[in-house]
What we know:
Blueprint: E1 3-7, E2 13-17, E3 23-29, E4 35-37, E5 41-42, E6 57-59, E7 65-66, E8 70-71, E9 74-75, E10 84-85, E11 98-102, E12 105-112, E13 123-131, E14 136-145, E15 149-150, E16 154-156, E17 171-173, E18 178-182, E19 188-194, E20 206-207, H1 208-212, H2 217-222, E21 226-230, E22 236-239, E23 245-251, E24 255-259, E25 272-273, E26 282-286, E27 302-303, E28 309-319
Antiparallel strand pairs: 1-2, 2-3, 3-4, 5-25, 6-16, 7-10, 8-9, 11-12, 12-13, 13-14, 14-28, 15-27, 17-20, 17-22, 18-19, 18-21, 21-24, 22-23, 23-28, 24-26
Keywords: Carbohydrate metabolism, Isomerase
Protein name: Galactose mutarotase
Pathway: Carbohydrate metabolism; hexose metabolism
Amino acid sequence: MKQATIENANGMRLSAIDYGCAMTELTAPDRDGNYESVILKYGDPEQYLENPIYVGAVVGRIAGRIRNAEIDGVALTPSEAPHHIHGGEEGITARHWDMDVDGQAIVFTYLSPDGEEGYPGNVRFKVMYELTDDDALVVTMTADTDERTWVNLNHHNYFNLGGRPTVHDHVLTLPSDHVARLDDESLPTGELLDVSDTPFDFRDGRPVGAAITSEDEAIVKAGGLDHPFLLKEGTTRLHDPVSGRIMDVETNQPVMVVYTANFLSEETPVTLEGRQKHSAICLEAQAFPDAPNHPDVATSIELNPGELYYSRTVYRFGVE
C-alpha cells in the first residue's frame, strides 16, 4: 500500500493511499489558525484493506443500491442480496490504483475490466484530489468505456469539522426542496417529498442533531440521515460553530446523499478514530440512487463509447 501527501501554500495538507483512493488526512484551520484533520480515518492503515464502511474512499462503479442487482437484463453482483450496493462485493473501492503526485494534486487511475462485478465494458477511471491555495479541495472523477455500461461514483469522506464526539451541533445548509422517499430496504420508491415543515428542510440552515433526533418516521427507521436530496442551484454548507470551521460544497452532480454515520459504534469491528454513532457526516455528491429504475426523476447514468463521465465537487474551507 502506497501513500502520498500534498500541501498548499497555507499549510493545508491532504494524505491518501492507493487502495480505493482513500483519503487518510485532510487538515483545515479553525478560527484561531490551528490545523487539524476534519475527516475520520482508521487507526491502522492495514484496515483500509477491509474498509466495510468505505472510509475516505471512492465508491463505484455505481454508488448506492440497484434493485434486484439488475439493469436492462444485465446481472450485477448481489452484494446486499437480492440487491447490488456500492459497486458489488468489492467494487473499485477494493482495488489498488495507480497513483502519482502532480504538484498540489494526487492523481489516481484504474482500468476496471469487462465483467468486473457483472458490469459490461472496460472502463478507465481517473480520480484527482487537488488542494488550491484558497483552501479548497477539488475532487474530479472521470470515466470512459469501450462498451455500453453505467457509472455513478461518489466520494465517501466522513467529515467532523470540530473533532468532538458527534456532529449534532454542526449546522447544515442544503439547497434542496425535495428528498427521496425510501422503502424499508433503503431503496428509492420514485416519490419525491417536499421538505417544507419537515426535519429534512435544511434550506436556511439547521443543526444536524435537531434533524437526526427528531421523531420523523423515515429518520427513526434509518437511525439518522441516510437520504438523497435533489440539489438546486446554490452551495451546501457545513459549519461547526465551536471551531468556526466552514466547509462550502459545490458540485455538478444532481443529488447529495447525506449520511450521519448511523451505524458506527464502539462495537464497530474496526479501529476507527471517532467511531461513535453520529460522529461524522458524509456529503456524497452523485446521481440519483438506483437511477435506471427511476427515469422519471433521475438523470441517466448510462455511459457509452465516446462519452466521458465527469464529476467535479469542490470543498472550500473557511472560518466564521
